[in-house]
Design a protein that fits this description.
alpha/beta, globular, about 280 residues, two-stranded antiparallel ribbon
Length: about 280
C-alpha cells in the first residue's frame, strides 16, 4: 500500500479534513498549522480532534505531515522575523501534541545575504530552543530548490543543520521531488544514485516523508515551480519510480501539485496507486 495524500484545509476542522482525505482515496494528509502566510492559529476543538483520530485509526492512516507557514524563516537577519519563527514553531509543536506521533515539516529558511554558514547556525539554534525530550512530533527539514538564498538545497547543508541539533531523535527530512530536481539532483536518470548519496551524506534513517511534485523547470534550475504529475520535466515515469522504490516504501507521500479541486488530487492518487503498487 502506498501511503499517499495531499494538502487539505484545516479551516473546517480535523474531522472534515479526514473525511476529505478518504473521499479522494488518500490514507495520509498534510495541513498548514496556520495560514501559510503566517498569522494566528485557529483554536483547536478537542472533540473534533478525537473524531478525527478515531477516523484515522479505523482507516489505517499513515503519519500526517503538517506544514509550517511559508513565512517562518529562522535564518533571517531580521530579529522580528526570527522571533516570529520561534513563536510560531513553539506554538505549533504544542498544538501538534493533539495529534501525537506525527510530523511537522518546515522550509529551513533563507540566509538573505548572511551566508549559508550563518543561516545553518540560526536554523539549528531555533531547533535547539523548540525541540523537547517529551514531544512526540518529529520535525522535518524540507529539501529545497536553492532559489535565492535558500538554505537546504544540498544534502550537505541539511546534514550540517542536523549535526548542530542536540535532540537528533526529534529531527528528520522531507524530500521534495520538484525541489531536489531543481536543486540539481538527477532523480530522472539516477534515482538510486541520489538515494545512495542521501544515505552517505545524511542517512536514510532521517528520511521520514516525501513531497511528490512534478517540476515546471529542468534539473538544476533552482526555480521551485510545481507541476501536475506527468505535466512537467520529471514526468509520470519518474514519479512512479519514486513511489514504488523499495527504500521509500511505507513513507507518507504528499502531493503538492497545483490543482483546482480535490478531484485533481483524486485522479493523481488513482494513477499513482495503479502504476506504483
Amino acid at each position: 500500500m502506498i501511503n499517499i495524500g495531499c494538502h487539505l484545509s484545516i479551516a473546517s476542522g480535523y474531522e472534515k479534513m479526514g473525511k476529505d482525505a478518504l473521499s479522494i482515496g488518500a490514507n495520509t494528509l498534510a495541513f498548514f498549522t496556520r495560514n501559510p502566510r503566517g498569522g494566528k492559529a485557529k483554536e483547536i476543538d478537542p472533540n473534533d480532534v478525537e473524531k478525527f483520530l478515531k477516523l484515522a485509526r479505523e482507516n489505517n492512516f499513515a503519519k500526517l505531515v503538517a506544514h509550517a507557514p511559508y513565512t517562518l524563516n529562522p535564518a533571517s537577519k531580521d530579529e522580528k522575523t526570527r522571533n516570529f519563527a520561534l513563536m510560531a514553531m513553539t506554538e505549533d509543536l504544542e498544538r501538534m501534541e493533539y495529534t501525537p506521533g506525527n510530523y511537522y515539516n518546515f522550509h529551513p529558511g533563507s540566509h538573505v545575504g548572511q551566508g549559508a554558514e550563518k543561516g545553518i547556525e540560526l536554523i539549528a539554534g531555533l531547533l535547539n530552543q523548540v525541540l523537547k525530550e517529551d514531544q512526540t512530533t518529529t520535525v522535518l527539514l524540507e529539501t529545497m530548490a536553492g532559489k535565492g538564498s535558500e538554505v537546504g538545497a544540498t544534502f550537505e547543508e541539511i546534514r550540517e543543520i542536523i549535526d548542530k541539533v542536540e535532540l537528533k531523535e526529534k529531527i528528520g527530512v522531507c524530500l521534495d521531488t520538484c525541489h531536489v530536481s531543481d536543486g540539481g539532483y538527477d532523480i530522472i536518470g539516477d534515482l538510486d544514485g541520489v538515494l545512495d548519496h542521501f544515505d552517505e551524506v545524511i542517512g536514510l534513517k532521517y528520511l521520514k516523508a516525501l513531497h511528490i511534485n512534478d517540476s515546471k523547470n529542468p534539473m538544476g534550475s533552482h526555480k521551485d515551480r510545481h507541476a501536475k504529475i506527468g505535466e512537467g520535466f520529471l514526468g509520470l515515469e519518474t514519479i512512479v519510480e519514486v513511489v514504488k522504490n523499495p527504500r521509500l516504501k511505507g513513507l507518507p507521500m504528499i502531493l503538492e501539485t497545483p490543482q483546482e479541486s480535490l478531484d485533481g488530487y483524486r485522479k493523481e492518487i488513482e494513477t499513482l496507486r495503479e502504476k506504483g503498487e
